[in-house]
């Protein structure tokens, strides 16, 4: 029997992502991929997947979906979010989970992911992953180009996302503890490549000022509002490459940070580039957040990258068996009495 | 010796920049450098992206150092000889019928030409593919004859159909998918330069040569309905 998640409500912008489509920028294909690769990996690790497995990137408002598999093992990681497992479509109350923990659901149950808090994004991984064919080596969704993911677009009601695994494995439930997702007080940038096309006064204003993430922000570009930058010699340049985190300044003088779905090349001068270690925190920032910048050298940036990669490598060591409080235990036992099946037999194993 | 600057785009990309210009000689250098660098298969180099005026080198700094890469680039550029043309030549059908060319008349007016002259001038050249960028499969072709050089439209269009043929400055291109656009549209091609079903996606590569073959509205519609892509399949060497 085929296994799937059937989407009842898609949420605000829910897409399948992985760590990106690498190696095709010379054909004009953006890398795409998870905006917050740290939380993305954490979600996969929580359900025992390879950290690179495709997962759902959920922005602001989560989806509601029904389980069409014997049982599934799921986990959310990233922003704080409440996840309810309801017995069927009509049920109002269910068992509530939070992000950073794995949980199970069985056939016919409905999973409802709420609104994200703290950060904009949360990732939802399924043990075994989605059975989706990669396009150009990746299952990441590039919505503008209709490439990859689920039919090249964000999820919609009625979509049936096929799963590779028809029942959850015999593993305990886990919790992820102490993953540091705090944001840097200032996002660090390496100046350039076209910083010489701005006046010193403008660059000073950019580094000293405070910007607000504007509502026009999407997976392609984070639009900022704050101190204006003045160009030297106009705002049109002959197109060159755009790295993730590049901060370009169009004619209106407001900086625009180019994100995962950025165009591969562009013709506006780029004043600076966010360092790679700060990109995950930038990616999970919310509309309305205040953002400021601080200059860093390439060497400092690479040292910070090393630290971030060490933090990512340490995620599996932060996974601990899910301990339950007495309240949780009651809920769990009640659930167990009402329903039967492998999923709940497994659930009870993790009760101490 | 070639004049260039190596610029940092953050801590995981270097830009080898040859200056703010659209120039066939610069493009030849960019593409030759990309070819040589890719052939070296340097551990830690993730991908290279040739553009009109520069080569972006994306790298993993914990595997390969920026200084090491800069040295490799300098070494390649120092010994770079006149690069042999390696691209293929592709004929692309284009329909210049006014029905599919909303700006043809306006372009002719601004250039002091008859629309038929614009078509004749545009379709009688062999163009060089400077780069692919902005959208999957979008090839920037040049050089447009100076008689047709115009600044962008003052008001960009919010959405143009896939296949639209645009001109702007020294460049011309066919848009592989519907997109906002500020260029002047003087025709439309019935074939798609981006085919996600292809294993490599894009039909053109930087360094290829392109000729436009005018076709009638009738022929345009026939090719559209056949959906046959007559271009050579992309090679796998890049």
Describe the protein's architecture and organization.
The complex is a heterodimer of chains A (352) and B (238). Chain A is an alpha+beta fold. In chain A, 17% of the residues lie in helices and 29% in strands. The two termini of chain A are 34 Å apart. Chain B has 238 residues and is of the alpha+beta class. In chain B, the strands form four sheets. Chain B has a four-stranded antiparallel β-sheet with strand order 1-2-4-3, with helices on one face. The longest helix of chain B has 17 residues, at 24-40. Chains A and B meet through strand 16, strand 19, strand 20 and helix 4 of A and strand 2, strand 3 and strand 4 of B.
- With strands numbered from the N-terminus, the spatial order across the biggest sheet of chain B is 1-2-4-3
Low-confidence stretches of chain A: 335-352
Q: What share of residues of chain A is helical? A: 10-25%
Radius of gyration of chain B: 19 Å
The total strand number of chain A stands at 23
Strands side by side in the biggest sheet of chain A: 21-14-15-18-17-20-13-22
Averaging pLDDT over every residue of chain B, what do you get? 90
> Proportion of β residues of chain B?
25-35%
What structural category arises from helix and sheet content of chain A? alpha+beta
Strand content of chain A: 25-35%
């Amino acid at each position: 029997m085929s296994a799937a998640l059937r989407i009842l409500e898609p949420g605000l912008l829910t897409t399948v992502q992985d760590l990106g489509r690498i190696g095709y920028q010379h054909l004009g294909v953006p890398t795409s991929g998870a905006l917050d690769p740290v939380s993305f990996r954490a979600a996969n690790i929580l359900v025992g997947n390879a950290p690179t497995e495709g997962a759902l990137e959920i922005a602001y408002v989560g989806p509601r979906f029904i389980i069409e598999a014997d049982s599934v093992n799921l986990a959310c990681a990233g922003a704080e979010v409440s996840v309810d497992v309801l017995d069927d479509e009509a049920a109002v109350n269910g068992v509530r989970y939070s992000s950073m923990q794995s949980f199970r659901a069985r056939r016919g149950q409905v999973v409802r992911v709420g609104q994200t808090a703290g950060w904009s994004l949360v990732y939802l991984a399924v043990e075994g992953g989605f059975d989706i064919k990669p396009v150009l080596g990746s299952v990441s969704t590039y919505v503008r180009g209709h490439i990859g993911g689920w039919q090249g677009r964000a999820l919609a009601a009625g979509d049936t996302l096929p799963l590779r695994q028809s029942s959850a494995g015999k593993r305990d439930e886990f919790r992820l503890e102490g993953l540091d997702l705090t944001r840097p007080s200032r996002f660090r940038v390496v100046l350039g490549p076209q910083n010489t096309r701005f006046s010193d006064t403008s660059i000073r204003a950019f580094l000293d000022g405070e910007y607000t993430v504007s509502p026009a922000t999407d997976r392609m570009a984070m639009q900022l509002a704050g101190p204006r930058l003045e160009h030297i010699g106009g705002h049109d340049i002959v197109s060159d490459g755009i790295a993730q985190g590049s901060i370009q300044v169009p004619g209106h003088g407001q900086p625009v940070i180019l994100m995962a779905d950025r165009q591969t090349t562009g013709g506006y001068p780029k004043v600076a580039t966010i360092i790679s270690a700060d990109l995950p925190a930038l990616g999970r920032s919310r509309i309305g957040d205040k953002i400021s910048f601080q200059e860093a050298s390439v060497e400092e940036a690479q040292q910070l990258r090393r630290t971030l990669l060490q933090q990512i490598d340490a995620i599996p060591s932060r996974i601990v068996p899910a301990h339950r409080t007495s309240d949780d235990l009651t809920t769990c036992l009640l659930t167990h009495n009402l329903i039967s099946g492998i999923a709940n037999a497994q659930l009870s194993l993790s009760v101490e | 010796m070639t004049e260039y600057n190596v610029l940092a785009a953050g801590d995981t990309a270097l830009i080898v920049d040859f200056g703010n210009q659209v120039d066939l000689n610069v493009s030849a250098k960019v593409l030759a450098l990309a070819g040589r660098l890719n052939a070296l298969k340097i551990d830690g180099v993730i991908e290279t992206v040739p553009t009109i005026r520069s080569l972006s080198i994306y790298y993993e700094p914990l595997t390969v150092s920026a200084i090491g890469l800069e040295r490799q680039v300098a070494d390649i550029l120092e010994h770079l000889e006149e690069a042999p043309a390696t691209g293929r030549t592709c004929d692309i059908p284009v329909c210049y019928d006014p029905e599919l060319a909303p700006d043809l008349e306006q372009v002719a007016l601004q250039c002091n030409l008859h629309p038929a002259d614009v078509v004749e001038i545009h379709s009688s050249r062999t163009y060089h593919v400077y780069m692919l960028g902005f959208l999957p499969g979008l090839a920037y072709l040049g050089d447009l004859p100076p008689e047709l050089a115009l600044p962008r439209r003052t008001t960009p269009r919010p959405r143009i159909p896939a296949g639209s043929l645009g001109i702007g400055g020294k460049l011309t291109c066919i848009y592989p998918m519907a997109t906002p656009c500020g260029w002047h549209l003087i025709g439309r091609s019935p074939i798609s330069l981006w085919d996600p079903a292809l294993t490599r996606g894009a039909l053109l590569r930087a360094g290829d040569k392109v000729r436009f073959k005018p076709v009638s509205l009738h022929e345009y519609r026939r090719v559209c309905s056949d959906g046959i892509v007559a271009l050579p399949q992309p090679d796998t060497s890049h």
